[in-house]
Amino acid sequence: MGKYRRWIQISIFIAVLLIAGYTVAGSLLGKDENPPVAGDSVVPFELETLGGTMAGTADFKGKPMVINFWGTFCPPCVEETPALQRMYEKYKDQGVVILGVNLGEKDLVRVSQFVKEFDVTYPILLDPELLVRDRYGVRSYPTTFFVDASGKVREVKIGGMTEGYIDSSIQNIIQ
Amino acid sequence: MEETSKPLDMRYDGAPRRSQKPKKNWLDYVWSFFSSVKVGVWLIVLTLLGAAIGSIYPQEEAFIIPPGIDYYESTYGWLGKWYYILGLSHTYTSWWFQLLVLMLGTSIVVASLDRGIPLYKALKKQKPDRTIDFMRRQQLTLEYELPFEAEDQAAADRWLNEVSAQLGKQRFRVSRVGMAVMGEKNRWSRWGPYVNHLGLIIFLLIILIRTLPGFTLEEYISVLEGDTIPIPNTNYYLKNEKFTVEFYENDELRGQFREEERVVPRRFETKAVLYTCTERCGTSDPVLQEAVQGTIEVNNPLEYRGLSIYQFGYEVTPQIRSVTVSLFDKQTGENYGQFTLKTQNPDLSYTAGPYKLRLHNYYPEFSLDATGAPTTVSGSKPNAPAYIFMITGPGLPEEGSSYIYFPREIDKERFRQDDINAAVGTGDKFEIRAGGMEDVEIATYTSTLTARTDPTVPYLLFGGLIAFIGLAMGFYWQHRRIWLRVDGNRLTLAAHTNKNWYGMRTEAKKLLEALGLEAAAVQIKQKNREGEPS
Predict the structure, then answer these.
(1) Helices B95-125 and B37-53 sit at what angle, rounded to 10 degrees?
(2) What does the pLDDT read at residue B426?
(3) Which of B233, B288, B319, B376 would you mutate first to test chain A, the one with the most A CBs within 10 A?
(4) How far apart are CA B132 and CA B379, in angstroms?
(5) Is the dihedral of CA B484, B486, B489, B490 positive or negative?
(6) B260 with B244: CB under 8 angstroms?
(7) Exposed/middle/buried for B38, CB within 10 Å: 0-12, 13-18, 19+?
(8) Which residues on chain A are in Cβ contact (under 8 Å) with B370?
(9) How would DSSP label each residue in B255-292?
(10) CA-nearest residue of chain A to B229?
(11) What distance in Å separates the CA atoms of residue A175 and residue A159, rounded to the nearest whole number?
(12) Tens digits of per-residue pLDDT, A51-87?
């Protein structure tokens, strides 16, 4: 009877330790639900492009990514677009891709006019319901995530960027 | 009656608990720690304090998008800042709080097993024939001389039969061994606290399971009348077909509300359609299949396969959904044709008679930027919609002529639509305008809804029910035992109960009166912890 009782004690405490491990791990790693900050892995997503096809982070695995959240209604976003385009042309042969995630503009005519007007050739992804924006915790516009080839977020830049800034940030992620 | 020593410790029927083992190894120390009631009470107090602190400022989970430290600092000052830094803004999901709750659960399990198992065994193997010493050391104990000769075994036997019969009448379960009788009732009520604890354990385990990812869902959505939007983290879309709200008449209000002429809604509801998305979900043209439709009112959700959609509130957000216009010849007044312009993702081409209109650009909230070029202030809200067309047709150049149209009169004047169109040449030839207000489709309300899935609710109720049954078992019934033994012609009687000694005394008195013995002598000895005879 004594031995049997000991078994009950041990199994109860093993169960408690397992649950404790699960709870502690859960709240420490449950930061998976939080927006990615520098040091986190990129949060994968897939969205519709202006062309109607689907594209996302999975298509550019192994390549440095610049995820830029923008809208035609946001003046600093508009201002930095030509610089982004030039930097894309400069670095695309080195595998760098710029993903322009549009913030909730459902009027496709305006988005495509914009792209035409600024001769944007990097992929434009549409986030009409702002689901990716929320997942990335974007609160001010523009916000840009610089992700290296291993999929790790190196930098989160809030606000408009100069061409020089984009250049050096991209240098940072291609190393 | 004789003076006796201190009453017997009848807790757990005198059985030893594992945590009282004299030689303890490390496992026994841990076991004793969790079995201790003092520790249990401390755990409850600490959990209570932790939970109370978590209720001071809104937790991060209360927001649709969790705010950062700036929000706490700006709204609550330096207290808010430190609240955030110490992690108190997510108290209930923090590792230390969850560990506290886990320890509390462990304490419930260990404390129950430590006491319940010995108690069960002791009660199971008890015999009716107790020693005189045992009986004299009970809190209720009496001795009498019986009205027959000490050697008269047969009389003693008959007398005990009478006792058994009387005990039976008082609804005791009677057991007899030799010249000893025991009446016992409601032993099952002793398990009340353990059943209660079982219910609590079930409850806690389900709370734990609930935290597994994907188990529950709670999403807030705002849908404008006429719109269909996706429900985040699901494959569902919801359409707000129509939203209606009724207000109280002013004379139905009373007091301050009436004086202030407050606008108070009496009832509001959303006629909704729920769709499941099969392909291209999250894009601008998902493939939807209707799942269910119905009316959602406060506390009256729309339900479909475990998903419940509740009415949360509403906002008054009047905006133009579409405007039906005609293309007129400015000179002849001829109406070339009618077409409808949506204010959200308008179509790209229209026909009016011999003319084709291609939408060159559209701005929901038209404005001029720093360089004087057209832009929009809002990315989606049609607060000042403007359409720029390229019109082609008879009498017009190949590449088309541009025309700008503002559905709102105020914008037309503000941005001087006529001047612009005159400057580009089409102003003297064409006019686009709506017939009247009946051509303008307006959506007035945005309905805010909550989509929820929680399969654990019935199981939580089940756990709670078990806990309540345990409480009832323990509080409303008591475990009573009466022992009687006859030695020669001397009767020794003792009784014990786990609660409600007043009731036990009444039972004993009733028994004694029925047997013709002096009942006035019945009194309960107090348990004296200093060890002095009472």
Answers:
(1) 150
(2) 85
(3) B376
(4) 92
(5) negative
(6) no
(7) exposed
(8) 75
(9) HHHHHTT---EEEEEEEEEEEEEEESTTSSS-EEEEEE
(10) A129
(11) 24
(12) 889 999 999 999 999 999 999 999 999 999 999 999 9
pLDDT digits (tens, 9 = 90+) for B349-381: 999 999 999 999 999 999 998 888 999 999 999
Q: What are the E-state strand segments in B282-408?
A: 287-297, 302-304, 307-329, 335-342, 349-352, 355-363, 366-368, 374-376, 386-392, 401-405
Taking each helix axis from N to C terminus, what angle separates B192-210 and B457-476, rounded to the nearest 10 degrees? 160
For residue B124, count CB atoms less than 10 angstroms from its CB and return exposed for 0-12, middle for 13-18, buried for 19 or more: exposed
Distance from C-alpha of B10 to C-alpha of B481, rounded to nearest angstrom: 12
3-state secondary structure B7-52: CCCCHHHHCCCHHHCCCCCHHHHHHHHHHCHHHHHHHHHHHHHHHH
CB atoms within 10 A of CB B423: 10
Give the per-residue pLDDT at A32: 61
Mean pLDDT of chain B: 90
Residue numbers in B near A8 (CB within 8 A):
113
Distances from the Cα of B96 to the Cα of A27, B151, B185, B246, angstroms: 9, 72, 45, 48
Return the pLDDT at A2: 59
Question: Per-residue confidence at A30, pLDDT binned at 50, 70, 90?
Answer: low
Report CB contact under 8 Å: A134, B65.
yes
Give B104's contacts (C-beta < 8 A, 6+ positions apart): B40, B43, B44, B47, B204
Q: How far from B100 is each of B84, B210, B463, CA to CA, in Å? A: 20, 17, 20
CA distance A174 to chain B (A): 30
Q: Which amino acid does the sequence have at B38?
A: K
Closest CA to B383 of B359, B355, B360, B414: B414
Residue found under tokens 């400015």: B330
Tokens 């649950």: give the residue.
Answer: A19
Q: Has the ipTM of the complex gone over 0.95?
A: no
Give the global pTM: 0.74
- Say if residues B450 and B222 touch (Cβ distance below 8 Å): no
Query: Which pLDDT score is estimated for A29?
Result: 65
Which is nearest to B148 in space by CA: B157, B135, B137, B136? Answer: B157
Torsion of CA B456, B457, B462, B466, to 10 degrees: 100
| Minimal Cβ distance to B379: which of A47, A103, A113 | A103
* Interacting residues of B250 by C-beta distance below 8 A, sequence separation 6+: B258, B261
CB pair distance less than 8 Å for B30 and A27 = no
* Contact with chain A for residue B110, Cβ under 8 A: yes
Q: What are phi and psi of A48, to 5 degrees?
A: -80, 140
User: Residue B288 is which amino acid?
Assistant: L
Structure tokens at B528: 């004296």
Q: Which residues lie across from B238 on neighbouring strands?
A: B229, B274
**H or E element in which residue B185 lies:** strand B180-185
pLDDT higher than threshold 70 for residue B410: yes
Contact flag A134-B98 (C-beta cutoff 8 Å)? no
| Predicted confidence (pLDDT) per residue in A159-174, tens digit | 999 999 999 999 999 9
At residue B393, the 3 state secondary structure works out as coil
Chain A CB within 8 Å of residue B203 CB:
no
The CATH architecture one would assign to domain A36-174 is: 3-Layer(aba) Sandwich (3.40)
* Structural domain B127-186+479-534, CATH architecture: 2-Layer Sandwich (3.30)
Tell me how far apart the terminal alpha carbons of chain A are, to the nearest angstrom: 66
Average pLDDT over residues B20-37: 85
Q: Which residue has the higher pLDDT, A25 or A64?
A: A64
B375 min Cα distance to partner chain A (Å)? 7
By DSSP bridging, strand B349-352 and strand B355-363 are antiparallel
